[in-house]
Design brief:
This protein is α+β, with helices and mostly antiparallel strands. It has one helix at about 70-84; strands spanning about 5-20, 30-40, 45-55, 65. A hairpin with a 6-residue loop joins strand 1 and strand 2.
Length: about 80
């Protein structure tokens, strides 16, 4: 018997951060918040998450900037408060 295991990254789109200016492409756009979860897989099925990172990215050039978890939570709380 053998066991197939591995690692896999899954990205989740968390929504729009806001209309911001990108210093790389010099364009304005609705930046997106994204969560990347790294998983331990067993027989190609994600089983145990072992690492999470949060990013914001430009919709024009797809330039990614990593942000701390606390900043991502703050962005989500602001968005939730503006919906009410």
């Amino acid at each position: 018997m053998f066991i197939i295991w591995g690692l896999k990254d899954l990205d989740t789109d968390m929504g729009t951060v806001g209309y911001l200016h990108c210093n790389r492409c010099n364009m304005d756009g609705n930046w997106q918040l994204q969560k990347r979860t790294s998983w331990f897989t067993l027989f190609f099925i994600p089983v145990i998450p072992y690492h999470r990172k949060y990013f914001v990215y430009c919709p024009v050039c797809h330039w990614i900037t990593e942000i701390p978890k606390e900043e991502a939570k703050r962005i989500l709380e602001e968005r939730k408060g503006s919906v009410r």
